[in-house]
Amino acid sequence: PKIVTLPGDGIGPEVTAAAVQVLREVAPDLQFEEHAIGGGAYEAHGDPFPQRTRDALADADAVLLGTVGGAQNSPWNSLPRPLRPESGLLALRKALGCYANLRPVRVQPGLEHLSPLKPELARGVDILIVRELLGGVYFDGDRKLDGDTAYNTMRYTTPEVERVAKMAFWAAEQRKGRVTSVDKANVLEVSELWRRDVQALRDREYRSIHLNHEYVDSVAMLIVSDPSRYDVIVTENLFGDILSDLAAVIPGSLGLMPSASLGDGAGLFEPIHGSAPDIAGKGVANPAAAIMSAAMLLRHGLKRSDAANSIERAVALALREEPTRDLGGKADTKTFTNAVLEAMG
Amino acid sequence: PKIVTLPGDGIGPEVTAAAVQVLREVAPDLQFEEHAIGGGAYEAHGDPFPQRTRDALADADAVLLGTVGGAQNSPWNSLPRPLRPESGLLALRKALGCYANLRPVRVQPGLEHLSPLKPELARGVDILIVRELLGGVYFDGDRKLDGDTAYNTMRYTTPEVERVAKMAFWAAEQRKGRVTSVDKANVLEVSELWRRDVQALRDREYRSIHLNHEYVDSVAMLIVSDPSRYDVIVTENLFGDILSDLAAVIPGSLGLMPSASLGDGAGLFEPIHGSAPDIAGKGVANPAAAIMSAAMLLRHGLKRSDAANSIERAVALALREEPTRDLGGKADTKTFTNAVLEAMG
Ligand SMILES: CC(C)[C@H](C(=O)O)[C@@H](O)C(=O)O
Ligand SMILES: CC(C)[C@H](C(=O)O)[C@@H](O)C(=O)O
Hints:
Chain A is α/β, with parallel strands linked by helices. In chain A, 41% of the residues lie in helices and 21% in strands. Chain A is built from 12 helices and 12 strands.
């Protein structure tokens, strides 16, 4: 199988290299092909998503992404919107047709103390957030900034809602069978459609799933005050952007959070943390999220669950034995990666 | 001065009565006039915001609102959208021209243990969230649900951005002088306008304010993992809905959170908690948020800061001496209200 790696900006190259090292160990048959994306791609090719990168995706079996973007005050942020690093990321999602972003939020046993929440609230949290990734206000073409007025359009169609809801129901079948669909149906017509279609699909095809609907403002509260009530959360693009980042703080370190974006073609696997330009190139970044994203690549992209499990077990062990600096430990990128490799035996 | 009270649904009447009792004590010259809103108004008059209520606002100096809406499974939620309780609330905001919703989030000294956050994170939190309340995706007329597609429009104009930003800068001048403006300018044109206009206003008229801009997903994280970094947060309607509810969990009880909605005319003052139909009519609701909303009414609506301060001090005392059930104490609505009245001397 062919894996396209897109190391990207900041610490992206370091954590991606670590993930590739682990992948080579458990799946020696993988072929890797590296390409440019983000700010670096703009510097080198004048485009944050160059044609050569786009072409390479055609026969890829999965894509492993590092991180994209510069510091808050990076000159990249003042480029015209289509040239900014984020535009490369959005174009990549679109090119791959990845309409469902899966973000597991799990508090590892023994690491509850890292959470900003009280340990009794953090303990045992195990949520899967399924975010719609190709629709809504992100991609709708009806958008404009013109003088002293501007607008964007939050639009969804039934097929867009159904395909991501299917993904959520499918995932829930392998978990506790409970799905919470999040919207703002008390105010938005687009949410009314969302709620109607998610419910209809459940009633038609997923009768064993327990589905409920909650408002986004209420979920923002409850995810913090009572996170254990959730199993699978499914929501539209913008709400998902906010809620998945919010939920990601519960385990206490973004350095622990992987993600998978799935669609009809090759999946996209990436850590959710940013490019951390302040520590880039120093060899101290925590590669756990990238390595766990590689595990998701094996599980969802290549259907190799055994290899995925073995990586995840090894990461859990390494986190206890060689915690990185962001976790209050001492390990640098290399030490941690070696601990993972060793734990895999 | 004439105060219009709108007790509303659920526990609204109980907590509003408590707040009125306290107001009568500190401001015997106030005239109260009670009117219908929400689900109850729909039942009685076929309209969640009846004409008679609308008329009463014309010469009001301030409006004290209880709570609006029914249980999750209330038949009110299946009414056509314009007849639902929430529509009454939105129509009320619009009628009053309240474009800025102010929500103070303060962790009371000694009550840190109520927070879902670790006490060391909760301690000393003192944020003011200023939410734009009349624009964006909430009120824009370009909206439709039609067969298998639906959309809403997130629109802002420069005057709408400037008037709420002014309110935030004004509030910050009386606090630590720091404003964080929240948007999604890396994706949305409407956020680009927002960011540009907030910054331009600061540069033109509020040079002493320290202004920074953050993305909504990042703020959702940081409000939980590092709440003390914020002084005043200003944001558009939908982001404000989510972030203000999120921030409201930090003090540990929604029963403690007041709000003020200000504009060019009479202000609207209301607790942020819901109508809690499960405990309605039992006399056990915590009226602290309604009473603190009455304090905000005195401060912002009638410019009577001394009376406002005396209520707030009394509430803080009563919370320690006669905590209500939601706070792990025993006091019911009456006991708590009496404790406030006593503490005011
Ligand atoms: C960088 C940005 C465009 C992106 C998004 O909003 O989708 C990011 O926040 C994310 O969640 O991956
Ligand atoms: C009830 C609903 C329409 C309302 C809103 O979204 O504004 C509520 O959530 C609030 O924040 O006051």
